[in-house]
Amino acid sequence: MASADPLITEDPYARTAQVYPRLSDEMMDRVRNYGEEEAVAAGQVLFRRGDRRADFFVVVQGEIAIIRQDDQGADELLVTHQAHQFTGELDQVSERALLVEGRSTGPGRVIRVHHDDLARLMSSEPDIGELIMRAFILRRMGFLYHAQAGVLLIGDPNDGDTQRLERFIIRNSYPLRTVDPQTDPAAAQLMEVFAVGAGDLPVVISPDRSVLSNPGLPELADHLGLTERFDPDEVWDVVVVGAGPAGLAAATYAASEGLSTAVIEALAPGGQAGTSSKIENYLGFPTGISGQALAGRALIQAQKFGARMAISRGAVALDCGVHPFHIRLEDDQIVQARAVVVATGAHYRKLDVPDYARFEGHGIHYAATAMEAKLCSGLDVVVVGGGNSAGQAAMYLSRHVGHVHMLVRGPGLSETMSDYLVQRIQRSPRITLYPHTEVTQLEGDRLLSGVAWTDRRTGQTTRIPAHALFVMIGARPNTEWVADCLALDDSGFVVTCLRPGQTPDLRPGASAYETERAGIYAVGDVRSGSVKRVAAGVGEGSVVVQAIHAYLASLGRD
C-alpha cells in the first residue's frame, strides 16, 4: 500500500510489538500506583472521538476495541487491546481532541489512569514512559500512513485553497485522504453522498460527516480539535510565541524544568524549517531528517513535559506596559505571561514581478515538500534563491521533476550556501544554475505555465514552460505584533542585549537574548544578529530558559 504520508516510507503497524506492547506483571503493579482498578461492562464506552483530556486505560481482563468511523459513518474496528495492553496515541499527551473511540467488548477490568496522572506516571517510571511514548508515536504514524481516523479533502490539487488546506493538515500531523474530483473514480459518489457541488470545493469532510466548504484555518483547527482555548485568568510562567526550532526548544526546556508553559503558533510546528524536505547538517542525524519530522518530535517532547499549544492562533499584539504581560491573539483571546519568548521567525520575501499575486497558490510556492513535488512530477520548475533552503529544495525537487532551473542574483552559491549543497548542485545533471539573473515575467491563465528571467549582465531573456516557481529569497521578520513594544533594527528584527557589532549588556544576570523589556526575550531567526540555522535556533531556545529562571526568581516565582 502507498503511504498517505510520503514522509513515512514503511508501515508502522509492521512493528507490532512496539505499536501494541504488553506490560509485564511487575509493570502492571507499578501502573496501579497511579490509577484505580475498576470493572467495565460489555459495550461500555471508555472514551469517544472528540474527547479531550481522556483517561488512559490498561487492560487487566477482557478487551477494549478501538473504533473509527469510515466515510459512510459506519464503525470500523482498528485494533483490539487485550490483557496488559493500553489505550491511547499522541493526543493522549496533549489537549487535542481524540481521533478514535474506545469500547469494552465484554465484561472486564481495567486500570484507569486519569489524564493529569499520566504525565506523572511517564516521568516517574521512565522505562514504562518510554514504552508508552514509542507506542503513541507509532500509532499516530500508522494513522498517517493508512489515512485512518482523519478527514477527507475533496478538491483540485492545483487549486490554491486545496493546497492551503492540505498543507495545514499535513504539517499538523493529522490523518488525511485527498480526492481529486477530476481523476478519482470515488469523487462523484462521495460528492453525491455528502451533497457537495462543484462550487463548494474544496471541502473537508470529517468522520462525524460534517462538511466544511473552503474553511479558514482557525475554523478548521477548531473543528479538528487541534487547538485549545486558554483560561483568560490563568497566568503562565512563560509563553513562547512561535513554534519553530527556537520556540519548541524554549518550550521543551521550560516545561521540563517545571515552568508552566504555553506555545502560540499561527500555522503549524516547525516554522520555515518545517517546510524543509531534508536537513542534513543538524547534529545527531547523519542521514538527515525532514524539517517536519524534526518539528514533530520536538513538539511531542514539549507536550510530554506539559507544554500546552494553541495552533492557528497568531499573536497580533503584545502589551508590555502591564505585568503579567498580555498577548492578544487573532481571535481576541488574551494570554497572560510572567515572561515572554518571541520566536516568531521570518518569512520569505516576495518577488517584484507583474502578476505575481495572481499566481500565488496557483504555481508559486514557498516550500518544497512531498506535496509540491507531487504537483510538479515530471515537469520543469524554477527555484529562486541562493541560501540553504533553496539548495535543499533544488536537490529534493531534482529527484521528482523534469529539470530544476535555479536562479540567483549573485555570481554563485559559495557565499550563501553550505558547501555540501553547493557541490551536489554543481554535480547534478538535473539542476542548472543561472547566476546574475532575476525573474522578469510570469505567464499563464489560471495556473502558472511559463517563467522568464533576464541576465542582468547581458540583458538576455530566457523563457521556459514551467508550472511551478519556488521563491526562497531572503527573509522578513514576523515582528509586526511587537513593533509598538520592542526595539527593532533597521530590517525589523528584534534587538536584544547582544547587539551586532556592539558590546554586550553587562548588567548582573543580563541575557544575550533579553530585549529592552525585562522578562521579554527573543530567540532564533527573529532576533537581530542571529545565525539563521536550525541548530543555532535550538541552542538559543534552550539557553534562554536559564535567564527566564533568573527573571522569575527576581519576581519571587521560580
What is the highest CATH level, the class of the largest domain?
Answer: Alpha Beta
> What is the count of structural domains?
4
Beta-strand content bin:
15-25%
Described by the principal axes of the CA atoms, the overall outline is globular
Distance between the termini: 52 Å
CATH fold-type name of the largest domain: FAD/NAD(P)-binding domain
Give the low-confidence spans.
none
CATH architecture of the largest domain: 3-Layer(bba) Sandwich
Descriptive notes:
There is one protein chain. This protein folds into four domains: 12-146, Sandwich (Jelly Rolls), CATH 2.60.120.10; 152-224, 3-Layer(aba) Sandwich (Glutaredoxin); 235-345 and 478-554, FAD/NAD(P)-binding domain (3-Layer(bba) Sandwich); 349-474, 3-Layer(bba) Sandwich (FAD/NAD(P)-binding domain), CATH 3.50.50. Helices cover 26% and strands 25% of the residues. It has 14 helices and 28 strands. The strands form seven sheets. Strands 12, 13, 14, 15, 16, 17 and 28 form a seven-stranded mixed beta sheet that branches. Strands 19-26-20-21-22 form a five-stranded parallel beta sheet. A four-stranded antiparallel beta sheet has the order 2-6-4-5, with no helix packed on it. Helix 8 packs across helix 14. The model has no long low-confidence stretch (mean pLDDT 92). Pfam families: cNMP_binding (PF00027), Pyr_redox_2 (PF07992). Residues 19-139 form the Cyclic nucleotide-binding domain. This is Thioredoxin reductase. One of its GO terms (molecular function) is oxidoreductase activity.
